[in-house]
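The authors assume throughout that readers already know how a fold can be written as discrete tokens. For illustration, here is how one protein appears when written out as sequence plus structure tokens.
>
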Amino acid sequence: MRLRARILLVAGILFAAAIGVSIWSHIQAQRSAKVLTLYGNVDIREVELSFRVSGRLQTLYFDEGDGVTAGELVAEIDPEPYRAAFAVADARVQQAQANLDKLEAGSRPQEVARAQAAVREAQAASDDAQRELKRQIGLLATGASSEKARDSARARRDETAATLASARESLALAEEGFRSEEIEAARADLAAARAQRDLSETQLEDTKLTAPSDGTLIARIREPGSMLAAGTPVYSLSLRDPIYVRAYVDEPHLGALVPGADVQITNDSSDQVYDGQIGFISPRAEFTPRSVETTELRTDLVYRLRIVVRNGDPGLRQGMPVTVHVPLEPAGH
């Protein structure tokens, strides 16, 4: 048992030494070549295109694989319900505007003239009733009239006086116009109607779906006739620019990389060499993804890089494995 333990111990030491020599040799090879080789994959951003409003999908203008430019119309939903809603909202604005104009203009001259005539008529009736009351009081003193006739004249005098007061108040209102509170309420009602019309107009415009950027449609998710809720994806768009490469570096080589450093990128499908720039180095270590081809053990901890490709073209496709060549500083620099 002791002999077996010793053999296992020696084997473990030799294995660790071999790993150490392999890593050291790899580092030395990279340094001697003055180029650090990293491995990664093309990372192209994708956008799911959807409508901001619900409705029946009416038209799709492109198919999978078609290229589109920013602002190009790619799909439409049935706009008729939104056109009707906009028409109603526009009519509501016109109604609110007319009501405000009426309140701000005040009473018409004819209304003021009618109120003035009513005051004159009430004044004449009041004067006549006052004279009749005085006459009945005089007749009652001489015995030529009765208390009942006097009381009737007094009641008519009071009635005509009340009618005159009411006519004068109506004239004052006609001459003054509407209250400021009523006008402010009408203005607020007009503002609300305009806001609703703007919303309806925006919703009508949102029945057209346009491409936000240049790219290639990689998926046609819905077909005409489908009922869509707001936010339901219709297309999946792969952006043409920017194109990134997601690569990984182990800790021994981390110090050789800085954001902004220039790199070159190659792939196995062509001889094209792409220029790139390191844009981001993750501050957190992670295990090497299984999709990355490396000569290191997959259980090694690495740091993720994001590299911006300057001269990307359709030859770089989503997920494509690539090799990143990072020039190292000569010894002594």
The two ends are 54 Å apart (CA to CA). The first strand starts at residue 35 and ends at 50. Residues 103 and 178 are 6 Å apart (CA to CA). The chain has six helices and twelve strands.
